[in-house]
Design brief:
Strands 1, 2, 3, 4, 5, 6, 7, 8, 9 and 10 form a ten-stranded antiparallel sheet that branches. Strands 11, 12, 13, 14, 15, 16, 17, 18, 19 and 20 form a ten-stranded antiparallel sheet that branches. Helices cover 19% and strands 37% of the residues. The longest helix is centred in the first third of the chain and has 19 residues. It is α+β, with helices and mostly antiparallel strands and 289 residues long. It has two domains: 122 residues, Lipocalin (Beta Barrel), CATH 2.40.128; 113 residues, Lipocalin. A hairpin with a 4-residue loop joins β3 and β4. The relative contact order is 0.11. The protein has four helices and 20 strands.
């Protein structure tokens, strides 16, 4: 009996060996071929440049631009101008007063930007609108681009820099002093601020909101639920300011705050919107506390 068991064991081992050999009834399983790195297909030139420099996916803030007189001038410090390039060939941002949008093509170091469309809001002072017009005109002359340190340079066909941008980090809702740039007046219109007035909002982490409504200081509370926001009616100090439109603006601002149901931040711009998507108030970040 023991001898038979040994014989059967030997026969089983031989059968297994035959089944696993190339001459058996089954084909051997080939390992997947690994292509050497040198033989991999190289990405298209434009795509490689985009990925290496992170042109898309970065929020760029204007540092300077070429004006209508052909002079390089610094961007206004109190009105952030931005550009965001997407991988599908669109560029959009804030031109200082209005939101703009255009198409672009990228091929290596060549860059072209189409004629921009924009919203139609008018802003004061006139320097803001002058900058906006000249900035958008400068973009349409784009023929190339390059990175210089941490800055993005847009070049025209002669190699002249027509716009210089720096990458930005989005501001935080809390711990930032927000300065209003537009207020819904309650008559289906968003208006810019009365000249020489400042309206601010500071959101604290404990749910308190305070600031200046243009004449009086205000204080209230708010709650967040993701991108949803609820702001309670505010209490204020009791000053009266004599400037034209100041008290009306204050009432409109405090009312607009209570209509906000959502909030969003793009770079240094905060927008509060109503339940139907209308802009209640827009702000730009001034300084971190």
């Amino acid at each position: 009996m023991k001898k038979m068991i040994v014989v059967l064991s030997v026969l089983g081992a031989l059968l297994a060996l035959v089944a696993c050999s190339p001459s058996g009834g089954q084909e051997p399983i080939a390992a997947e071929a690994t292509q050497p790195a040198a033989t991999e297909a190289a990405p298209a030139e434009g795509t490689a440049v985009m990925e290496n420099t992170m042109l898309p996916g970065v929020r760029w803030v204007l540092v300077s631009y070429l004006n209508a007189a052909g002079e390089t001038v610094a961007a206004l410090t109190d009105r952030e101008v931005t550009a965001e390039f997407t991988a599908d060939g669109q560029v959009a941002g804030n031109a200082g007063c209005n939101q703009y949008f255009a198409s672009y093509t990228l091929d290596g170091e060549a860059l072209t930007i189409g004629q921009a469309g924009s919203t139609m809001m008018a802003c004061e002072p006139t320097e803001v609108m002058d900058q906006e017009t000249q900035f958008l005109a400068a973009l349409t002359t784009a023929a190339g681009w390059r990175m210089e340190g941490e800055q993005l340079l847009i070049l025209d066909a002669n190699g002249t820099t027509v716009a210089t941008f720096a990458a930005s980090v989005p501001a935080s809702l809390t711990g930032t002093t927000w300065s209003a740039t537009g207020i819904n007046n309650g008559q289906q219109a968003v208006t810019s601020l009365v000249i020489d007035t400042t309206v601010t909002a500071v959101f604290s982490e404990d749910g308190q909101l305070n600031g200046s409504a243009g004449c009086n200081n205000f204080m209230t509370s708010y709650t967040l639920d993701g991108q949803n926001i609820t702001i309670q009616p505010a209490a204020t100090t009791r000053k009266m300011c004599s400037g034209e439109g100041i008290m009306e603006q204050e009432t409109q601002f405090l009312t607009a705050l209570t209509t906000a149901t959502t909030w969003s931040i793009s770079g240094d711009v905060l927008e509060l919107r109503t339940a139907d998507g209308a802009l209640a108030a827009s702000f730009v970040a001034q300084s971190a506390e």
